[in-house]
Structures are given as structure tokens and as C-alpha cells.
Amino acid sequence: MIRSQVDSVSEVFSNRRSMLERTLIDWAVWNDSYDFVINPNEEFIRSNMGYETLENLGISAMLFLNENQDVVYSEFSRFYASDNEAEREAFTNDILRFVNASGIKQNAVYGTDYGPIVFMSHPIVRSDGKGTAKGTLVMIQKIGPDFISAVSAQAKTPITIRPLSHNRLIIDQDEKFARVSMPLQSIYQDANWELNFSVKRTYYLNTMSMLQTGMFGLLILGLGLLITLFLTIHRFITMRLLHIVTELKQITHERNGRLRIRSNRRSRDEIEDMATTINNVLDALEETKTESLNRAFRDSLTRLPNRLAVEDMFANAATPATQIAVLGIDLDNFRRINDQFGQRTGDALLTFLASRLNFYKEDGFAARIGADEFIFIHPKWSTREMRLVANQIAKDVTDWGRKQGMNGLTTSIGIDELNHIDRPYTYEIMMNRLDVVLHEVKHSGKNQILSYDEIESGSHYLHMLEMERDLRYALKHGEFELYYQPIVSPSPFAVRGVEALIRWNHPVKGAISPGIFIPVAEQLGLISDIGRWVLRQAVSEIQEHAHSHHLFLSVNVSKRQIADGSFLEELRHVLSDTKFKANLLHVEITESEVGGNLFELQQFISTLKEMNVQISLDDFGVGTSSLSFLQSLQLDIIKIDQNFVKGIPENKFDRALLEGLYQTFHTLGLDIVTEGVERPEQLAFVLEHSSSLIQGYHYSKPVPLAQLEHYLKKTVLV
Fold it and tell me: Alpha-carbon distance 525 to 561, whole Å?
């Protein structure tokens, strides 16, 4: 009871504090108050201030302070109004010493010449709470007899207030009363006052006496009732519930949905009703399971089994068939049919194809395994029987399309035959082989019927899968190697730089040309991984030679590397890790890729420029970018493709064209590298009409790092 009374008194004062805080915030977070402390005006005072305002708010005084903590305006209740001006000024100055110079929010109880007061302050800001504070609003609530009477009535106990004597809650008890001294610091941020009240202990003493008398009797009665209740519950409830639990555990353990709890029909109480309800729930679950399985294993449109049903058929087959023939059907351009003729026509086509498969299947199994993909499986059939059905299915679909006004409706069909004796098969093996056949049909132009045996040795799809596997293995196990082709200045002769070129030495197939595996890597999305390896490996191998021979290093970058951001990310790491000079690195962009996303390419080049990396446009003349693109790209070097050089000096057109390119690029202030220079007469023509650098077999073909080191040493000696 004492603790409850302490909580009650604390709650009353906390509520009073919260009410005053809300009133303070309403006035302090307000555009009118904000403008008033900046520019005091009579209109604000006439509209908002006065004795009535303070009485309505239940406060004794209100002070508006500016940023310098000077009083802009003050208002006092009638209690203070009877005092003279000097006393009010003295009281105001007394209050100002409690205001925090930083203008933070405060709530406290302080003592003054007029007795204890509740003191609260808040920064004055705009109504949206944003911006800096332009002053402080102070509200004062006098703790007088009226205030104490009001809180005593709310707390339902007489309360007195006096200066603080203890810093913690004190409860002194005797036989009749518990006397409480409670510091107001537990309610306000700062207070040098405490509350005092008493709680009479009569109820406590009477209650203790009654409890001591009655507890013994209740204990004896309770023990008797508890024993009787336990025996009754154990016999009529617990034993029967344990029986139900035991049978439920057995059903769960055996995972048999047909088992049910045995019931006693002679007993019709709540426990028996519970057993009946559990049986009903088990019945419903079994029905739901059956229905869910039907939905999960059956296509809702065609009512054919789906891919899950095919997989389940293989998984639950007691003994797999010794031989099966598989037919995979893919409707060509099905999405275009939906777009052109509507969803209903597309659904009608799928339903028609499902009906034809049901017609031909006999003892087979037909299923819809994708949006426009169907599968037909038949035990003991061979490729020959399946091809007859495939031809008929293709004809039926074409005839149906012609009747619907869709000329040229075709199908791609793959056939496979699996023999369990020769080569054990599973669902995964069957689907993988069928996917290979269907991919090959689509790649070779669709509207065909192919079997796995027909494409097994020359499948483009299998070749792609094999190439992807080999590329990933090569990247992981170091089958790649870098060759370097020198880029020289002919007169006077000097090796100015090298271009890093990747080579692949396959352990079985031998050397594989970059012209073969680079396009495949692009298509498979592996070019970014390969590009990161080339960049880091080239910088690592050439760094020492670049410093000792004053060489630049050229590396190629693909459109995919530019698009996915992988090249720039790796470049930052490589330059940071190796301390390689950025101005010695030349990044080569293939001219045939310039015609893509020009804005994206400009952003890429701009980033390289910020890093002090040089930009080369490789293979100029074989792409579609034309000279107009050079105006929008910040290029440093143009590498003229070898096709311009092949006919030099014999071909008059090639001579004129190459001479014009040299003149144009020199006028634009671009450095030039002429690729493919192989003969002395070609070199002589280039030297006569330009100051171009040379890259070609006349000086050196691409060589491994060891041969490059020998070449560089030899040129130094020369």
C-alpha cells in the first residue's frame, strides 16, 4: 500500500509536469513566438498575453527571452501583479539564473522568495521544429496552498512540501503510520525540494491478523480438496487424454494418414467429442493432402501432369522400365502468338496440343513441363515410333494454326531413347539430354525434329557447355598465359610499349585461338572474370620492365566490362596494390563497340581520364563508329587496323585512304599506332607519311614474357 501511494503521488506530479510541458511546447514551437522574440510587437501581446491567458494555462508567470537570454517580454499572474515593479524585476532576475545558457529544455523545482516554484524552459523554434532556436520560453507554476491542495486531492492523501533533506526515498514506520519523504528529483530534472505524506497502517495490521487466522484453516481445506481433485482428474480426464496422446504419437510415428483415434461410443462427454474432432481434422487433412497433391502435380489449364509429376513418376517407380522413348515439344514463337492473337488463342493452342498427346499416348505418359513445353514418355518404344508421333504432332499443330488464321505455326521437337541396361538413366539424365536436343533444334532454326543420336557428336549446345566448363577450369587452374607484342617507334628505333594478349593452352586440345574462346566468354558472361585476370597479371609481369625500359602497357577492355563496372573496380585495386604508374597504362576500346551506348562509354573514358590512364581506340576502320564519334570521345591514341596496311604500297586506294587518315589524326592532335606492318615497303610508306608508332610482325609477333625480356635486352644493346 505504501509503494502504491508513492506511485500515486509520483504519477500526480508527473502528470502535472507533462501537462505543463505540453503547454510550454505549444507556445515555444510556434512561428508567432519565433517572430515575436526576433521582433517584439504589441499585436502579439494584445492577441495572446494577459492575466486570463495565464489563468487558462494554469501557470503563474511566462518569460520570453531572446538569443542573448535577455527578457523580451514577461507576464505575471494576479498573485505577482500585486507586487511592485521592483519586486517583479527582482523575481525575474532570480528566475533567470536558472536558465541554461545553452538554451536546452529544462524542468525543475526551485525555491524563491515567493516559495517553491515549478520551473520549465524550452528553446523557441518554428512550428515545423526546424532551424535554429531564436530564444527561450520560460513558464513558472507556483507551488502554493492551492497547488498542494489540488495534488493532495488527486493523490488522495495529504501532502506537504519542504526543502530537500535526503537524496533518496525515505520510509519511516511505526505501529500506526508509515511516513514518506520523496525527493522531487525523481520526477524533475533538478529539484531541491521533497514531498512528505503519511500512510495509516490500520488496514495492513487488520489484514495480517485475519490472514494469519484464516490461512491455517484454508491450508487444511485446500489440501483435502487438492487430493480429491487430483484423483478425480487422473481417473476421468488425465488417463483418457494420455490415451489420445499415445495414439496421436503412433499416427505421427507411422506417418499413416489412414489411422484414427479409437473412440468409446458409450461415453459422450467433452473428451470423447475432442477425440471425434481430432479424427475429423485428420480426415480433412487427408482430403486436403490429396487435393493439394493433385493440384501440385497437375497443370490447371491442360489438366495434364506437370514437371513435378514426371519427377515423382521416376522417383516412385518400383522398377524402372528397361527402355523408354522421350519426346520433347516446344511451340515456336509462342509469346508472339499470345501478343498477336491474344491469351485465349494461346490457351486454346495449349489445350489442343494436350488433347492430341492424350490421343496418341496409349500406355505412355504426357505432361506439360513449361509455358509452351510438353513431354511425352513411352516405355518400350524406340526412336522410330516416337518419330512417327512427332511427325503427326507437328502436322496437327500446323493444321490447327492454319484453321485459326495462323500460317506458319510450327514446333521444335526433340527425341531421345534411353536403355536402362546399356546406360542407367534417371529423371535428371533424361531431362538434360532432352534439353540438349531442344536447344540444338532452336539453334539450327526451329521447326525441326531431331534425335539425341543425330546431334550427340556435333551439338552446338554441347560444345557451348563444354567450352564454358573448360573456360571456368582454365581460369581457376592457370591455363591462360599472356603474350606481349612490342609497339615501337621506328626512327629512331625504340620500344615504346607492349600490348598484352591472352593465350589459352588447353591440356587436351592444345592452343585455342582467342578468336574462338573470347566470343564464347562474352556470350557466357565470363569475359569480366577473364578481363580482371588479364589486367592484374599484365601489370604484375610488366611493372619492372615498364620502369626500367620506360614502356607503356596496353590492355583490352570489352563492352560487357564497361557495362558491369568490373574493369574500373579491378583497375582501382590493381593500381593501389601494385603502385603501377597510371599514365603508363593504355586501355584499348575496340572501335566496333563504340556505336553502342555512347553516354556510358563517355562516362567510362571520363573516369579513366581522372585516374590519368591513357585511352586507345583499337582496330579503327573495321567497325561502324565513323570519324564523327571521335569528336565526342576524349581519345589519346588511334590504332589503325591492319586491313588498311595489307594493300600498301601496291593498292592506290589504300595508299590514299591511309595517307588521309594520317593527316586527319595528326591535325586532331592524336597519337597513332599502325597495326599489321609486316614488310619493309609498308614500313617505308608509314614513315614517309606519318610519325606513327608501329605494331606488327616486321618487328615482332606476340611473344611470351621470357622472349619479350630477351627482345628488350637485345634492343637495348643495339
Answer: 10
The least confident of 108-122, 581-595, 635-649 is 581-595
Residue that has been written with the C-alpha cell 601496291 in this structure:
650
pLDDT tens for each residue of 58-79: 898 999 999 888 899 988 886 5
- Which helix (DSSP H) or strand (DSSP E) does residue 145 occupy? helix 145-155
Cα distance between residue 343 and residue 356, in whole Å: 20
One-letter amino acid of 345:
T
174 vs 414 pLDDT, higher one = 414
Cα angle, residue 589 at apex, residues 584 and 595 outer, rounded to 5°? 155
Q: 654: helix, coil or strand?
A: helix
CA distance 575 to 579: 5
DSSP 615-630: EEEEEETSSS-TGGGG
For 180-196, write each residue's pLDDT tens digit. 999 988 888 888 899 99
Three-state DSSP state, 115? strand
Average pLDDT, the chain: 85
C-alpha cell at 560: 560487357
List, as one string, the DSSP characters of 500-564: EEEEEEETTTEEE-HHHHHHHHHHHT-HHHHHHHHHHHHHHHHHHHHHHHT-EEEEEE-HHHHHH
CA 527 to each of CA 112, 252, 481, 562, 600: distance values in angstroms, whole numbers, following the listed order: 82, 54, 15, 11, 18
What is the pLDDT averaged over residues 159-166? 89
